[in-house]
Amino acid sequence: MSTLTWNLNRGKCSKLNSFDKDIIAASGTPLTIKGQTTIDLRINEKTYPITTVVADIDGDIILGLDLFKRYQCHIDLESEKIRINGDNCILTGQGTSGCYRVVVSEKVQIPARTEIIVPAEVSGTDKIKENLCIIEPTLK
Q: What is the superkingdom listed in this entry's lineage (predicted)?
């Protein structure tokens, strides 16, 4: 759970307890952990008690594998639904999707099945509004 979400819902959560493990973000940087708490997650008028870590993350909350196992969750991306204990919940996206031309200043060869970080710019008048994005190649 994000620190912002915790602060907005502090009165609805149990006491913040210490959490002594390190969590590393997908970017490889350690997260700043505030603690651990128990909350009642409400989905489709049903309540699911969960224990969550409060950390400085961008999203409201990240649902973990423990929740998916405990409540027999199944994600169906084709129908854009998640099933929790047999009940369907419609998935909704936030943010924007876009298609942008990305330009690198020099030729870069990326070996198969590898990743590489290269300096690049988005050309044109439209700019990416998010600070983080994924660039995928197009086939010629």
A: Eukaryota
- CA separation for the pair 59, 92 (Å, rounded): 14
- Joined together, the tokens standing for residue 135 give 């660039």
Confidence band for 54, pLDDT divided at 50, 70 and 90: very high
The burial of 52, by beta-carbon neighbours within 10 Å (0-12 exposed, 13-18 middle, 19 or more buried), is given as: buried
> What are the residues facing 42 on neighbouring strands?
47
CATH number, residue 51 = 2.40.70.10
Q: Kindly tell me if the per-residue pLDDT of 27 is higher than 80.
A: no
pTM score, whole prediction: 0.60
Residue 35's DSSP bridge partners are 54
Strand partners, 89: 82
Domain count, the chain: 1
- Number of helices (H), then strands (E), in the chain: 2, 7
User: Would you say residue 124 lies in a domain?
Assistant: no
Could you report the per-residue pLDDT of 94-125, keeping only the tens digit for each? Answer: 665 666 777 888 888 888 878 787 777 777 66
The contacts of residue 100 (CB under 8 Å, 6+ apart) are 122, 123, 124, 126, 128
